[in-house]
């Protein structure tokens, strides 16, 4: 129509239309049809019925029914698209089969399946229904299917980047938590393989720590520090003042102190701590020995240790006054050979071992090895041999899995003059009150020397020296260097207890609640690290699934583009037949697909 209008205008103006140097006829010009307006274009030119949608629905129902009746896998594969192209391919495949391409006198196929598909193709071609279906396929897939698939790929790519970042963050967090866990365990002094068992072993280092502190306070340099402070306090107060009593008492203690100086509660707490560590260690070694908890101990054994009377010695009563012996629920008599059996009121241990006078062994027979119980009687001075519990391995210097020598208690018979039970001097600092007093006195010393050092270095040092000219020589002779050494000495001793590791050891040994809280805090880091690794693995799996989906979408887009190209060609050929073979071009973004 546009060309005719141009020709009309040209004739009116006397201008001849020339294309590339020569006039072209209308039937030689190509027909350009936009893919989105193809059906409307056909309807406008009365090449397609306006009610083509209803007719096409009927045909597609017939196609679906015929496709469901196919039994050959090859034909079923061709029928997946259920459109004109599929119907044409199935009809041509059946017509190529010599057993199914027979026709009657009227040119119709005799095979019912071939005949059905041939009629479907004819219905498509009747009224150009196939052109409407082809145009609809192009519009649907170009405008919607391919953009949706590409957007899906873009979304999957963005999600994969996010998942990679999340997985890296999760793994980094897990590494950080693992490192923090190792650092916390290293700070406490454990490996972290069995938290509760290892934490119960930590307080066993307290005796060595307390012994180190006591040894540091026993050196001569620290004695000079105390002497100067005492003399300065006596000078300033004008009378003799008892300063630093706990520090002096700790310094004057020997390697062992009487059991009476240790409160029963402290002694019992240490015993429970050692028993708990021994129980956990035995459980780890998978031995058959079950020490049980301290609270589950045999009620027949009473470990309550009453305070010693004033001026007397502390004795260890294994059981209450009645009965006066440890009853192992065994009966025994161990008389000496040739001696009458006698009974005394001295406490004894009943081992339920019956020993009778055995016959003298024959000298010609090799002696049978006997069991050495490492128990030797010693004369206690009361006519009754006491039992000495000393372990020969400990005495010889060998060490077992758990060294309890620091907590050994010497057992003596009641009423004898063997002396009071002795314990290591480190037990003095197991008492929380005494330990707090020692720390307080050390802080007092530190503050005193820091103040004296500040006064010595201040501008008022000369006036201060003049005011103290009447002081004893021992008070005046301290120099700045000596004061600095004194401050350093006191701080070093105080640091032995006033640090995080020592505080943790003390709390672990005295508080079951702190032990549980410490275990929970460390386990939280492990559990959180495991959860981070689980999240990272889940992100990696989801990322792999998205990658697989994106990889499958790419070939799917290529298949759709190939199908579009093939149907575009058939649509152009079908319209060209309607216009006596004129060239038809389907234009639009359909031609930019790749």
What's the helix and strand layout?
Layout: H1 2-13, E1 31-34, H2 38-44, H3 52-68, H4 73-78, H5 84-95, H6 112-125, H7 129-188, H8 195-201, H9 206-217, H10 220-237, H11 245-252, E2 256-258, H12 264-284, E3 376-379, E4 385-388, H13 392-396, E5 422-424, H14 432-457, H15 461-467, H16 473-476, H17 480-497, H18 500-510, H19 512-578, E6 584-587
Parallel strand pairs: 1-6
Antiparallel strand pairs: 2-5, 3-4
Helix pairs in contact: 3-6, 3-7, 5-6, 7-19, 8-19, 9-17, 14-17
Describe the structure.
This protein is 56% helix and 4% strand. The chain has 594 residues and is mainly α. Helix 3 (52-68) packs antiparallel against helix 6. The longest helix has 67 residues, at 512-578. It is rod-shaped, with a radius of gyration of 52 Å.
């Amino acid at each position: 129509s546009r060309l005719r209008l141009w020709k009309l205008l040209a004739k009116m103006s006397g201008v001849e239309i020339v294309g590339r140097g020569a006039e072209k006829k209308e039937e030689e010009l190509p027909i350009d049809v936009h893919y989105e307006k193809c059906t409307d274009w056909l309807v406008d030119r009365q090449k397609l019925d306006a009610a083509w949608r209803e007719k096409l629905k009927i045909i597609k129902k017939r196609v679906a029914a015929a496709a469901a009746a196919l039994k050959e896998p090859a034909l079923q594969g061709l029928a997946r698209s259920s459109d004109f192209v599929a119907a044409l391919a199935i009809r041509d495949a059946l017509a190529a089969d010599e057993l199914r391409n027979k026709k009657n006198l009227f040119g119709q196929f005799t095979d019912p399946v071939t005949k059905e598909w041939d009629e479907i193709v004819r219905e498509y071609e009747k009224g150009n229904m196939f052109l409407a279906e082809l145009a609809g396929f192009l519009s649907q897939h170009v405008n919607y299917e391919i953009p949706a698939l590409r957007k899906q790929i873009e979304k999957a790519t963005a999600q994969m980047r996010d998942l990679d970042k999340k997985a890296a963050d999760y793994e980094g967090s897990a590494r950080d938590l693992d490192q923090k866990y190792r650092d916390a365990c290293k700070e406490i002094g454990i490996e972290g393989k069995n938290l509760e068992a290892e934490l119960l072993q930590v307080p066993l280092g307290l005796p060595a720590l307390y012994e180190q502190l006591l040894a540091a306070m026993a050196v001569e340099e620290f004695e000079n520090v105390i002497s100067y402070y005492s003399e300065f306090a006596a000078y300033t107060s004008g009378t003799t003042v008892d300063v630093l009593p706990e520090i002096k008492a700790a310094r004057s203690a020997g390697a062992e102190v009487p059991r009476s100086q240790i409160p029963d509660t402290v002694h019992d707490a240490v015993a429970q701590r050692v028993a708990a560590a021994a129980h956990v260690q035995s459980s780890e070694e998978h031995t058959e020995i079950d020490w049980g908890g301290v609270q589950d101990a045999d009620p027949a054994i009473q470990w309550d240790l009453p305070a010693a009377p004033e001026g007397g010695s502390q004795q260890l009563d294994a059981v209450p006054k009645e009965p006066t012996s440890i009853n192992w629920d065994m009966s025994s008599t161990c008389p000496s050979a040739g001696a009458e059996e006698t009974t005394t009121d001295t406490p004894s241990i009943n081992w339920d071992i019956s020993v009778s006078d055995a016959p003298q062994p024959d000298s010609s027979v090799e002696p049978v090895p006997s069991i050495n119980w490492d128990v030797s009687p010693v004369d206690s001075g009361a006519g009754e041999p006491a039992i000495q519990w000393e372990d020969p391995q400990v005495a010889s210097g060998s060490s077992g899995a758990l060294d309890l020598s620091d907590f050994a208690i010497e057992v003596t018979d009641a009423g004898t003059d063997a002396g009071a039970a002795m314990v290591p001097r480190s037990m003095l600092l197991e008492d929380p009150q005494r330990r707090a007093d020692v720390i307080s006195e050390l802080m007092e010393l530190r503050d005193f020397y820091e103040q004296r050092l500040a006064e010595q270095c201040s501008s008022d040092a000369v006036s201060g020296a003049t005011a103290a000219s009447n002081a004893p020589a021992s008070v005046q002779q301290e120099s700045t260097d000596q004061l600095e050494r004194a401050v350093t000495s006191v701080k070093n001793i105080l640091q032995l207890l006033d640090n995080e590791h020592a505080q943790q050891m003390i709390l672990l040994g005295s508080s079951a609640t702190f032990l549980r809280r410490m275990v929970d805090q460390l386990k939280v880091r492990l559990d959180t690290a495991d959860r981070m690794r689980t999240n990272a693995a889940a992100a990696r799996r989801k990322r792999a699934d998205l990658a697989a989906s994106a990889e499958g979408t790419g070939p799917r887009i290529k298949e759709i583009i190939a199908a579009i190209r093939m149907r575009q060609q058939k649509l152009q050929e079908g319209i060209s037949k309607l216009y006596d073979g004129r060239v038809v071009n389907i234009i639009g973004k359909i031609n930019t697909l790749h």
